[in-house]
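Hi L.,

As promised, ARM repeat N-terminal plant domain-containing protein:
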Amino acid sequence: MEEFAEASVHAGVIPPLVELLRGRLTWVEQRVAIRALGHLATYASTFPAVASHGEILELSIQLATSSLEIVYSHFYQYVDRRPSYHCDLLTRGMGGVDMESRKAEEWASQLQCWSLQLINCFAFKPEFLSTICKPEFLIKLPGMWGGLVNENSPAGIGLLRTICHHKIGRGPVASCPGIIEALCNIARSSDDWQYMAIDCLLWLVQDPSTCHKVIDKAVPALVDLAEILALGDYKKLGDSIVNVLQECIQSQGAGTQLSQ
């Protein structure tokens, strides 16, 4: 697949995709553009070509934040004003208003998830984290989930995990109490992405520069999870949590002694 991505870039597909991403046509074409750019950003050989268009990241963040509202206001809200070609695309020419509405909800969720996946490709590169880690965007990530149609997408929590993997990303996350509370709730849940929230909390607690900001909320949540034997592919997860908590307590104790 990578060779096809390279061929597409060489053929000059990125500029017209950026035009669609800007909203030159409609949200339906934005959905196609975000999906295509997400594929191109996945490969090491074609990511630089995507990244060279600086507005792609900004536009993706805007879409991730506003995609549901865009689809509602431009299609879902007024049944009698729905563009006929949108209706045909959504239902493949079959089904009525209910089918159109249901598919529009699915496509809106896909638009958001695919935007997050594209942002996630940028988040692996520390140089883009300053653009991504804006408080007004970060605070919304825990509430962005894939839904049934995107059950394999970690959506907002997946992006948070990538951000928290970087030291430069942990600072902004730790500075948003609402995010820490959301991570604690997800970590305690039976959500499929529970382990991602646990990872975020562990990294935040292990980092001396963020530990003091999150310890009051994160530690009680992690203590509740310390008896977990395994979680999916994570073996001896409880032991790992206990070890991190012990290190945290020791470092906090050492810090207290030094301050005295």
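Residues 1-125 form one domain.

Thanks again for sending the construct details.

K.
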